[in-house]
Amino acid sequence: MEKLILKAQKGDSEAFIEAINYILPQLYKIAKTRLNSEEDIGDAIQDTIISAFENISTLKNLEFFKTWVVRILINKCNDIYKKNNKVVYLETLDNCSEIHCSSNDAAIDKIDIQDAIKHLSKDYQNTINLYYGSGFTTKEIGQILNESEGTIKSRLSRARNILKNYLLNYREVR
């Protein structure tokens, strides 16, 4: 991988594309945890790839390519999230009313870990998804989010407890 990055830094666009294709599934998973629509996910990934390509020469430590690209992606997702947070889509309201107003137990049965994760704050969501969904270590997550490893460990622990309590309370209500 480091050879590809070195070639990309020297202007080899094919090497860059190959390196991006290697991490693309993880980029998609991360964007999916932050954004709801496929269009926004695609935009975030596209903006990330363009930004990474334009700035590949600034990457000093080749072994941190993946971490560097994920950090760019999270920033792009945050920008899109902030922009979209000001807009309420009618289809979202329709889905929400169907789920909450319906007495159909099938809608209630669809709850899973991803639904529970959506109830967490964005900081906790990022940490959980990067750790479990993408397999990053707490140290790597700290680098991606520009936080100390201790903060990431604490956040991970708190998020697990919140999820546990949420899921236990959900089962009691049912």
Automatic annotation (TrEMBL):
This is RNA polymerase subunit sigma-24. It holds the Pfam family Sigma70_r4_2. Residues 22-85 form the RNA polymerase sigma-70 region domain. SUPFAM superfamilies: Sigma2 domain of RNA polymerase sigma factors (SSF88946), Sigma3 and sigma4 domains of RNA polymerase sigma factors (SSF88659). Residues 112-161 form the RNA polymerase sigma factor 70 region 4 type domain. It comes from Clostridium zeae. The keyword Chaperone does not apply. PANTHER family: RNA POLYMERASE ECF-TYPE SIGMA FACTO (PTHR43133), RNA POLYMERASE SIGMA FACTOR (PTHR43133:SF51). The lineage of its organism: Bacteria, Bacillati, Bacillota, Clostridia, Eubacteriales. Belongs to the sigma-70 factor family. ECF subfamily. The keyword Transcription regulation applies. InterPro entries: RNA_pol_sigma-70-like, RNA_pol_sigma-70_dom, RNA_pol_sigma70_r2, RNA_pol_sigma70_r4_t2, RNA_pol_sigma_r2, RNA_pol_sigma_r3/r4-like, WH-like_DNA-bd_sf. Keywords: Sigma factor, Transcription, Transcription regulation.
